[in-house]
Amino acid sequence: MIDLLSTVRFLASQEPASMPELNIPKVPEITTALELGAELQANPLKLTQLVEILDVQRSLLINTLREVAPIINATRQELSQLAQDFIRQGIELFMQSLIPNPAVAIAAQMQLMQLPGVFIDHASLRLNEMTQTLQPYVDKLSTITPVAEPRLAEVPAPTSGAASAGERAVAAAKTALGAPYLWGGTSLNGFDCSGFTQWAWRAAGLELPRTAEQQAVGTQVSADQLQPGDLAVWDGHVAMYAGNGELIEAGDPVQLNPLRTSNMGMTFQGFFRPTG
């Protein structure tokens, strides 16, 4: 007679582990660190980009775990039910094998001998289905890389004053060359025009307003007074002077273009030098 208990133990061992309750820490608040860095004229670019990367990776991890938990738990329940069905059918067939009627008893014994293989095959099939279902999530999580690998620019520490902050803003902006355009975007995953200039100037230690028109702040300058980091502002667009007669701006993608004062018929408000 077959060992029913061994099969039950095997089926139980195939249940995937339950999803643990993971407490993924929030990305630390760095406002105080940025303020201190600004006082010390330290370059905040690496810190802000690391925090941005960690925040994206944390969100990806949390959302992925939330999506896979029901898949894994459903498989656990199915395999648990499978073990219970095996026990029930095994007992029924065993009792039938004791019936004095030889035909019934032999038929029950034959089915009983085949029963473990049927249930083990069923369990293996269900586990393979779960593995295939989870593979896209595994691939998604494989995109999480050590934070030392992403592009983190070393911005030279300039001397002092508004021009130095502007140079830091331009250096930050150039690390985003090639980033895609994204309406409302404020990160390396995608920028709109004002989100891009706000992001670059934040790396230089200065927080700008969010929209293009609102970034006409600071000191207005003429074209012959332009310094790196100064902003060219229209009523629906903003770009940053990168030096050497060029603007850097969030087109599609972020790119360098010749200095200009026209932009698809928009009203040009002027050049502005952000100041703290």
Question: What can you tell me about this protein's structure?
Answer:
The structure is a single chain. With 276 residues, the protein is an alpha+beta fold. The chain folds into two domains: 4-141; 161-273, Alpha-Beta Complex (endopeptidase fold (from Nostoc punctiforme)), CATH 3.90.1720. It is 50% helix and 12% strand. It contains six helices and eight strands, in the order αααααββαββββββ. The chain has helices at residues 4-13, 31-39, 45-97, 102-141, 161-174, 193-203, and strands at 186-187, 190-191, 219-221, 231-234, 238-243, 246-250, 254-258, 268-273. Strands 3-8-4-5-6-7 form a six-stranded antiparallel sheet. A hairpin with a 2-residue loop joins strand 1 and strand 2. Helix 1 (4-13) packs antiparallel against helix 3 (45-97), helix 3 (45-97) runs antiparallel to helix 4 and helix 5 crosses helix 6 (193-203). The chain is rod-shaped and about 110 Å long. The chain starts with a helix and ends with a strand. The model is unreliable at 149-163 (pLDDT under 50).
List keywords for this structure.
single chain, two-stranded antiparallel ribbon, 276 residues, 8 strands, endopeptidase fold (from Nostoc punctiforme), PG_Endopeptidase_C40, alpha+beta, 2 domains
